[in-house]
Amino acid sequence: MKKTITFLFLVFTIVSYAQSIDYKKTPYIKGSNYYQIIKQVREDLGAFNKNASKTEIKKHKQFERWAYYWKDRVDLNGNFPNVFSGYYNAGIIDANGKFKDNISLASQTSRASNTGQTWTNIGPQEVPDANGYPNQPQLGRLTNFLRFTHATDPSQNVLFVSAPVGGVWKSTDNGTSWTPKLDHLAGIGVTDIKSSSADINNPGIIYISTGDFDAGHIKSIGVYKSTDFGETYQPTNLTFNLNQQESTSNLIVLDANTVIVGTNKHIKKTTDGGVTWTNVYTHNYEDAVLGKFHRNGNNIMCSDSWGGLFFSSNNGSTWSVLVSEGTSSQRHAITSNQSGVFYVQNENGQVSTYNTTLASPVLTTIGVPTVGYNTQGSYNQCLAIKDGMIISGGVDGINSDDSGNTWYVTLNNSWSDNTSAGSYGHADIHEIGTLDDGFSFWNVNDGGLNFVTYSNIADEKPTVEYKSNGVIVTQLYSVAITPQTTTDNMIMGNQDNDGYSLELVGGTPTWVTAGAGDGTCTAVDYTNPQIRYLGSQNGGLTRADNGFLGDVWGTSLTTPTAGAPFVWTLKMHSTNSSILYGGFADVYKSTNKGDTWTNLNSGAGAIEYIETFGNNLIVIGETSARKSINDGSTWTTINQPEASAKMNSVSLNQNNTNILYATVNGYVDGSKVFKSMDGGATWTNISDGLPNIVAKQVVLKQNQGQEILFLGTEIGVYYKTGTEDWTKLGQGLPNVVINDLEINYTKDKLVVGTYGRGLWEISILNETLGVEEVKLSSETAPVVYPNPVKTGVLNIKMHTTNTNFKYQMYNVVGGLVKKGSLNTGLNTLDVSTIASGIYVVRMTDGITVSAQKVIIK
User: Fold this and answer.
1) What would the mean pLDDT of 364-386 be, rounded to a whole number?
2) Strand 636-638 versus strand 625-628 pairing type
3) How far is it, in rounded angstroms, from Cα 541 to Cα 520?
4) Which of 108, 130, 164, 550 has the most crowded Cβ, counting Cβ within 10 A?
5) Which Pfam families does the annotation name (predicted)?
6) Per the confidence metrics, is the pTM higher than 0.85?
7) Are 546 and 569 in contact (CB under 8 A)?
8) How far is CA 265 from CA 224, 248, 283, 670, in A?
């Protein structure tokens, strides 16, 4: 019997089925409370144990990723907003979920920015060097695949893939190169892509189902279609208003005008190309989440999220119930063979058949349950059959060649070498299908698109070809940079795809793999870029003392992991790179590059954000924001800037540490960014110009002539100078969540890590931002010498008699290391205690300015 959906029951079912998809349904169930759900599910899952079974680790990961996604969106009381509020408030979609007429990414950004600058993706565009990692990470999760084959030349095949965050990508050369086609909706994502024709010369109408059906993080804005071979997309009339929190499943496209899709409660069908949609099946319950359709001829089978199975023998016009809903908490995977026999697999891995060629077909179990079957609550669950070979996709790919009596792992995400079972296949297979003659298949997984070929039905080590190099859909949590050399050294931490570290390989900057699992936080020693840090979930941390090249796992450090957040924060002191601050159950400090840690006892709860300079330390925790002016010896509480929201990032002015900037979470209209002149006692709202979108992180460009701020949001980056309003920064950045911002001070570039479209940078020279400065000419500029400095003495010779000149000397991450006044004539500065590296000396009288790079050795 299906239970009544009330909040009390919701809590009960979450406790009972923490491994199921119940918590994913909560955003659209009235009365759901984020904080109560977090508490209940974490209690049920227990403490994270990195040595637990693969299944247990996966349960934690799936839930914590969901919790991280919603953390900055819910309001102070834990109420869930509509996930697309920001897209609506920014004018990208209307109240019915349709994007505005003639809107494009280029037109949005050109209207919004006056910098004239264009964002550049800086990689990686291809899978990084494996670096000795046998089951290496890849570029990121895909949800579905579509192919149009060329009659004579396979290299001219046209391929499409869809991504849960990152839109639609198209290749016209069989996967050699790829181009994004839906960047203005990149953060919304796509569940499925299908066409009414397989003819490359007459491709028909391409339909897409939006959202992220498998993970449930991102709901759907409906079904869209393309009439120009996937170049542009327009909404059908199946769209949803901001209050609906709907899902749309994979699609059945019967012809150019006839399409079937599942929603939370209905199976819907259109026969006029999406102008009108009819409910051809109405479920008994609001949260059925119908979908995972499979079609063979006129027969279509569908599952729901409560274990139900539904069947139509007339192309979806009418439906019957094969298995009543409520028999389990997970859906079925469905496929069929060439003879029209349907195969379904339940949550326990048991396969059954449904033979539509019989007069009275019934579900009949075959063989034994799949060994090691793990769908993570239907997050990854698919099935394929060809000429007697059954392939079951979950965390791994497991197949049978004897009707399910014996099973073999043939796509192994834990592959080590040729003695391992199967061949390497990235974890978490979302969809699978046949390709060409023989046993050739495609699948999409959390790493990308694979073509898999078995030489025969008994082959246990198939050939796996990665086909989505160039599909840049990496989901970053964090990025760290240090431009100490011309290589722009960087390291990035990624959801489910470890870390990528930019290292010199044979003299060429190359992205290489750094092992982590989920790469949650990063740091690079700005005095020695060979020293790099990569955090993993729940407080895990490794350090590479000579770069990660040749040392994929680095040195595992002992950290206070108990009570650490899943996505935790690591902060390096801005002028002493040996000092680290870690956001665990409280804030901890290490003075020896992470070897040992001391609890600073801030009392803020589990730490979510850290800002530091000198003895000033600010932390944002689960329970409060706290500040110390003596490096954690004593603490005071920082007042929240907005009564209806919680602070979620902070930036500090290193020249006046009483000046703070903060963002707050949620959708409080007009309340996004705040400024304090008294160390956080009182705040002034400086949100003018911003739409009501989620603000993720604010960063001050340090040591400038005036206030320059950058803001990462759920739809890109905004900037603000002086008293001007906020405006969108640059052109060409997809509308996608910005999780991290870093400033390259020696090259005046902003580097941002996106959640679903990789790593990007843009020039932020002051003149391009509209900052009015008068630069001294080469004849009147101060002479700074020697350069490089090898004796510990830096000379600055002033040509002017102006006695108002001051200087600031800061490092590559903006850390202020020295400042003072300059006299007429020769000024001698002692820099003997400053670490080797690149620095910027900025000299100004408040009207004119000269900024020069200095190398100290």
Assistant:
1) 93
2) antiparallel
3) 9
4) 164
5) Por_Secre_tail
6) yes
7) no
8) 20, 10, 5, 35
